[in-house]
Amino acid sequence: MTLPTEPADPADAPDIHFEDVVPGASFTSATHAITAADIARFCDLTRDHHPLHQDPEYARARGFDGVIAHGLYGLALMEGLKTELGLYRHSSIASLGWDGVRFLRPVVAGDVVRVEFEFVDKRASSRPGRGVVTETLRLLNQRDECVIEARHSALLACRDAASQH
Question: Is the pLDDT confidence value at 152 over 50?
Answer without folding.
Answer: yes
